[in-house]
Recover the amino acids of this structure.
């Protein structure tokens, strides 16, 4: 079993480097110790995609800080996970910034950006409704950071894994249906 570490902000170049290292790994199983304050959401999506393609051979080991985009990496991957007791998560609204300076005044820009964040994060907020209190959900909606301890990270993971498995079954059913129609 090989052991690798990713303990930094999520950035495209670093994720590409990690993928290159993992692809060269000859061991059947890899423990990937993962700790990050967050970072680039598109780089996080790239890492999620890679981990999901190799979910049978990678064990993700979240520890210490799992924040923002890193929270999505941990929760939206199908690979096995082994949470260390020192882990804590931080979530907040994650989104793309759109330059609206030439289109509207500052107050309208802020309002537009907030509305866009809420729409982009509706799925995330819905997924977390069983883990967060009403007050915490409102805090996230209002742009504040919310922290989860070890136990709530485990509970979040259980919820996400159940949804990922359901999504996988729906996708497989859809593929079988399409294949039947073709034959």
């Amino acid at each position: 079993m090989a052991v690798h570490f990713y303990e930094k902000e999520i950035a495209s170049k670093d994720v590409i480097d990690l993928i290159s290292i993992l692809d060269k790994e000859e061991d059947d199983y890899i423990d990937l110790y993962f700790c990050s304050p967050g970072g680039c959401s598109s780089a996080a999506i790239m890492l999620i995609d890679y981990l999901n393609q190799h979910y049978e051979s990678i064990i993700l080991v979240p520890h210490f800080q799992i924040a923002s985009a890193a929270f999505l990496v941990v929760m939206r991957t199908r690979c096995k996970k082994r949470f260390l007791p020192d882990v804590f998560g931080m979530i907040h609204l994650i989104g793309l910034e759109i330059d609206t300076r030439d289109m509207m005044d500052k107050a309208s820009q802020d309002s537009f950006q907030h509305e866009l964040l809420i729409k982009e994060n509706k799925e995330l907020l819905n997924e977390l409704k069983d883990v967060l209190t009403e007050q915490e959900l409102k805090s996230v909606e209002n742009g504040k950071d919310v922290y989860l301890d070890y136990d709530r990270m485990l509970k979040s993971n259980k919820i996400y894994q159940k949804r990922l498995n359901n999504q996988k079954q729906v996708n497989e059913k859809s593929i079988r249906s399409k294949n039947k129609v073709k034959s």
In short: The chain has a mean pLDDT of 86. The chain has one domain: 2-92+145-182.
